[in-house]
Amino acid sequence: MRSHFGQFAFAVQTSGLTAVKEVVVRKLAMNYKLIRYTIWTRVLLCSLLALGILFYRPVGIFRRLLTKNPAIAAGLAGGVLGAFTALIFNDSGIVAAATAIIFPAATLFYLVLREQITLL
Predict the structure, then answer these.
(1) Contact 51, 111 (CB under 8 A)
(2) Least crowded by CB within 10 Å, which of 4, 62, 73, 87?
(3) Contact present, 98 and 43 (Cβ < 8 Å)
């Protein structure tokens, strides 16, 4: 019994780049289908939009929070990297990325709210 990656490696060994192309096309087709039909697409896009807004507004809060909390900064970076990796390598990458990005986004929102409350 081979794992999915083992099957992929064997296919590449026997078929060459054709196998890579088939896998990429299959993954893109599945993600396109999921983008059109699943609520998780909206979750992912809203989370990324919110993170993008927090990166710029309020000015400097993102940098200030990550400087104050280096362990959380590492966790956020790891969570975002994990979500991106899931998006690339998982057949249903949209769903995996959306569920993975929820935790770093929620943590960052909490820190921003806490910071804003302490400034008042």
Answers:
(1) no
(2) 4
(3) yes
Mean pLDDT along residues 28-55: 87
* Statement to judge: residues 74 and 114 lie in one domain: yes
91 band by pLDDT with thresholds 50, 70 and 90: confident
Q: Are residues 90 and 47 part of one domain?
A: yes
Are 31 and 93 contacting, i.e. CB atoms less than 8 angstroms apart? yes
Number of independent structural domains in the chain: 2
As a whole number of angstroms, the distance between CA 36 and CA 33 comes to 5
Amino acid identity, residue 77?
A: A
User: Same domain, yes or no, for 59 and 115?
Assistant: yes
pLDDT (0 to 100) of residue 52 = 83
Task: Return the structure tokens found at 104.
Answer: 């770093």
The DSSP string of 39-107 is THHHHHHHHHHHHHHHHHSSTTHHHHHHHH-HHHHHHHHHHHHHHHHHHHHSTTHHHHHHHHHHHHHHH
Query: Is the distance from CB of 97 to CB of 42 less than 8 angstroms?
Result: no
The overall pTM is greater than 0.85 = no
